[in-house]
Amino acid sequence: MARHLLAALLTLGLALPALSEDPPEAVEAEVTTLPGGVQPDLRGELALSLHDAIAMGIENNLDVEIVRHDPLIAEQEHRIAHGIHDPSLYGTFDYASRETPVASALQASDRLVERETTGSGGVSGLIPKLGWTYDLGFTGRRITTTSSISELSPEYNSALTAKFTAPILKGFLWGQAWTQVKITGLGDEIAQQQFRQQLMDIVGGIENAYWDLAAQKENRTVANKSLETSRALLGQTNAQYEVGVVSRVEVTESEAGVADREFRQIGAENLYLTAQDTLIDSVLGPYLSPSSDLKIVPTDKPEAYTTFKLDREESARKAFEKRPELEIARRQLAQSRISLKFARNQRLPQLDLVGSYGYHGLAGGTNPTPPIFGGGDPQVATVTDLTTGSVVPVSVLDTTPQEQRVRQPVQVGRRFSSADDDYFSADGAKQWTGGARLTIPLGNRAGRGGVSKAELELRKARTSLRRLEQQIVIDVRKSVRNLQSAQLGIEAAERRQVAAEEQHRAEQIRLEHGESTPFDVLQREEDLVEAQSQKIGALQIYHSSVAGLDRAQGTILEDRGVVVEEALPLR
């Protein structure tokens, strides 16, 4: 029988690991659709202003959606830290059966049999900020016994007890739980500022992508026009060659010019399509597919620009007031201060005040096992005469010195519900304790090391804040300088374009009069294309510099009409 049982247990032991293994789960691909389950078809043309592009980007950009989660996660971390102080309800149930061999003249049997059922329940928790713990619990117990010296079976015991532990040095006001609440509270604020910072970067990226598309669109137009001009020149040169006005070499030069312009047009077209994808990804990213054929048409013209009067002092003032990076660094500095206070508290000895107060109750029925000291109804008070061994009611005793030599059982209720009858009364059986626990770590290297580490981290946070302030000054100076340069660059590029257009026109007239060659015309046309591209680039740099200065000042969101609170909720 034992061998069969051992084999069965061995088989079960080998089978349980296999049963505990979960089967591999299939990974399903998610398909992004618009509300209502409609997948948009990105085809045709979509005219967009910069304002509309930013608004669509905030709604659809997946980078924005990703960073939206961070403040919510930080909020839940703060909530979790607070949740440590939530009271906890608890309950237990135990059953025990004990059979104990005995050899005693006080027992009527050679075996003591006891059955015990115990249940308890209550509420416990941690008091916020103070770091004190409490426990209010009720315990009930039922015992049946064959003991000859126990007059109650079943016997019912109950207890209602309040306990507390109160740290007054280490852990007081700066305990681990409350420190975490304060740090995560600042972490929640940091996450809000980090969302604002990342939103600024994303809006700046959308704006740069918008103006890059506008610039590549203009460059493509210039490249197409240049190709048309070179083809027209080739046609003109072929006509002149056929009538013997020019040589075959000049025709070849014109053909080379067409091939060069075709190459440039192909590159310009590719850059334009790449800029399309970049902006589409920024404003309609989740809906971009390999077969998408959407063309965004910027409606804001790069030529519409304003000349700013720049003030570095004013820009720096705005930056120190509005840059979220500074707010993040200041709150991180506050976290370091809290960590230092906590570390200093943890360096203290542990001194806890402990105490409890409660009531105990008793009830039960008559023990069916004959007691060796006599028996009877427990509701009738009796005594045993130790001289004669007889059991008599209390009422028949004389008030003699013999009363000092008798045992009188206490009258109790018969049911468990009566075990707590005397709670909160003068007759209640009260129990209380009070004391203190002192723990002094010898050497205390962990506590002293924790303080030193926190002091270094606080100093590092202060230095990081000063470095950030210095970096913001550099950013503002650079952004102001870039915008100044961009404004001057536009003026210079416009002058060059006017001159290149005039030179190209004059060279064409000379060619018509036989005073020039197609090669010279192509050279002038190439200079004109370069001048036009330079102006397009200067305008693009200007708009990017405006966005860069607004980002450096921390005003890019408010200047574009973006409300952070409206952009924050999950989409």
Could you walk me through the main structural features you see in this protein, from its secondary elements to its overall organization?
By secondary structure, the chain is of the alpha+beta class. It folds into two domains: about 90-125 and about 130-170 and about 350-440, no CATH class; about 175-345 and about 445-565, Outer membrane efflux proteins (OEP). The chain is built from eleven helices and eleven strands. The strands form three sheets. It has a six-stranded antiparallel beta sheet with strand order 2-3-4-5-7-11, with no helix packed on it. A three-stranded antiparallel beta sheet has the order 9-8-10, with no helix packed on it. It has a two-stranded parallel ribbon with strand order 1-6. Helix 3 packs antiparallel against helix 4 and helix 4 packs antiparallel against helix 5 (about 250-285). It is elongated.
CATH topological fold name of the largest domain: Outer membrane efflux proteins (OEP)
Which spans have pLDDT < 50 for at least 5 consecutive residues?
1-23, 26-38, 376-409
Rg is 45 Å
List the helices and strands in order: HEHHEEEEHHEHHEEEEEHHHH
The CATH C-level name of the largest domain is: Mainly Alpha
Count of individual beta strands: 11
Mind telling me which CATH architecture of the largest domain this is? Up-down Bundle
Mean pLDDT: 86
Which overall shape is indicated by the principal axes computed on the Cα atoms?
elongated
Strand order, sheet with most strands: 2-3-4-5-7-11
Strand content: 15-25%
The tally of domains stands at: 2
Which structural class is indicated by helix and strand composition? alpha+beta
Share of helical residues: 40-55%
